[in-house]
Amino acid sequence: MNMLTSKKSWLLSPVLFLVSVAVLLLVWASMSPENLRAAFDANGRSPFELMTLPLYALIVPMVWIACPFSGSIKRKVLLASSLSIVVVVAILKQLDLHIEILSAFYPDVVANFKGTPFKMRFLTGAGIPLGAKLIVITYFISMFGVFIALAAYYSITLVKAVFKLHPVAWTFGCFLASGAMAAIFDRLPAWYRDATGIPKSEIPSCILSLFTAFEEGGEMMMALFALLAVLQAHIIYCCSSKEEC
Q1: Do 118 and 99 meet the contact criterion of CB atoms below 8 Å apart?
Q2: Contacts of 10-14 spanning 24+ positions with Cβ under 8 A
Q3: pTM of the predicted model, to two decimals?
Q4: Using an 8 Å Cβ cutoff, are 56 and 90 in contact?
Q5: What is the predicted pLDDT for the residue at 104?
Q6: Distance CA 59, CA 62 (A)
Q7: Longest dimension (CA), the chain
Q8: What's residue 103's pLDDT?
Q9: pLDDT tens string 31-73
Q10: Rounded distance, CA 53 to CA 87, Å?
Q11: pLDDT of residue 238
Q12: d(CA 65, CA 101)
């Protein structure tokens, strides 16, 4: 456990981040574009994606069993419940179940809408039923609203902790960096098309496979850093202070 909470343990997450990036580069360089995309991306059903989902699912019981929060029982339950909601909605998103739920209630609306309905233009679009908009709003609040509220609640503490080389703060930073990496590589194909003016079908397959590896790899890294942060916080705030979690 000392490796997770010692004075130099803040280095653990940055090192793991760099190692993970190096591994993704090695995998991309050693696999053909077709095999890599088949292994990493199949609309939520690829081997790599199916390995990632259990890691996200593990966060929910771990938050309750290895409580990462200090304070009163009420505070722990509130924070653990909020984090669990974010994780569950993230899993629904990964499996595209949020779209299936909306389609079950409003099949014609989803079928006639160009692109994913879980965007702001869906909420501002004319002729969209109020009920459909409420489902999308609920998704946004559960996924982003709760996460932003948690991040804002801990923002000052986290910033101070980064400069104090607190291991949980650096692990959370690597979690955010992984999320940013996944989001950037998810958008890169569209940015590439806009910059070059060529259709997606003409983008070199080696470039698309690189985008895929780092998008899907970033999502797995997020789950791993989230689990590590929960474990580190539990050891520091609960076990070290001998609180009962």
Answers
A1: yes
A2: 10/165, 10/166, 10/167, 10/169, 10/170, 11/170, 12/167, 12/170, 12/171, 12/228, 13/167, 13/170, 13/171, 13/173, 13/174, 13/225, 13/228, 14/170, 14/174
A3: 0.86
A4: yes
A5: 93
A6: 5
A7: 60
A8: 93
A9: 999 999 899 987 767 889 889 999 999 999 999 999 898 888 9
A10: 10
A11: 74
A12: 30
Token pair recorded at residue 169: 């703060």
For the chain, residues with pLDDT lower than 70 are 1-5, 44, 240-245
Answer yes or no: are the C-beta atoms of 227 and 68 closer than 8 Å.
no
Name residues whose C-beta falls within 8 Å of residue 215's C-beta, 6 or more positions apart in sequence.
41, 182, 185, 186
Residues 6+ apart with CB under 8 A from 226: 56, 59, 87, 175
* pLDDT score, position 243: 47
What pLDDT, in 10s, does the model give residues 97-110?
899 999 999 999 88
Residue 63: Cβ-neighbour burial (10 angstroms; 0-12, 13-18, 19+):
buried
Q: In the 3-class helix/strand/coil scheme, how is 47-78 assigned residue by residue? A: HHHHHHHHHHHHHHHHHHHCCCCCCCHHHHHH
Question: At what angle are helices 12-30 and 167-196 packed, to 10 degrees?
Answer: 30
